[in-house]
Amino acid sequence: MSKKDLYRPNVAMIIVSSNYPDVKEIFIAQRNDLLDIWQFPQGGIDSGEEVEEALFRELEEEIGTKKAKIIAEYPEWISYDFPERIAKSMQPYKGQIQRYFLLRLKKSAIIDLATKHPEFISYKFVDVDEVLNLTAHFKKSVYATVIEYFKKEGYL
Description:
single chain; 5-stranded mixed β-sheet; 3-stranded antiparallel β-sheet; 4 helices; 8 strands; globular
């Protein structure tokens, strides 16, 4: 297996509210299995699935709505390694390689975390500069890189 094959293809999303661009708060959700961990919605890309198709499927599976519009896309794949305690349950993968999107919820979107396979127990919208204080340590460098890119491009 090549090094590339050790990273699970994944799609991730930074979601802003329907009040964007007037208000630039970012959606984060609290995991149901790691209670002090907040993160962006994300999920695997199924074999044969297009990235944007996976994006909207995961959006609905994780927060109960597809009612969002793509504002921007991070221009390249970005990866991170799982911490040892998580890597054991994710074998054969050592981490994830992700495609990030910036999404704006539509005014008609209703967030419902009580999905078929709930991953989150709570959510909130926070200031862009507060996100990194709340998220998992092993994802912080990826989050920081993507947020900085969207800031530099004038989106956040």
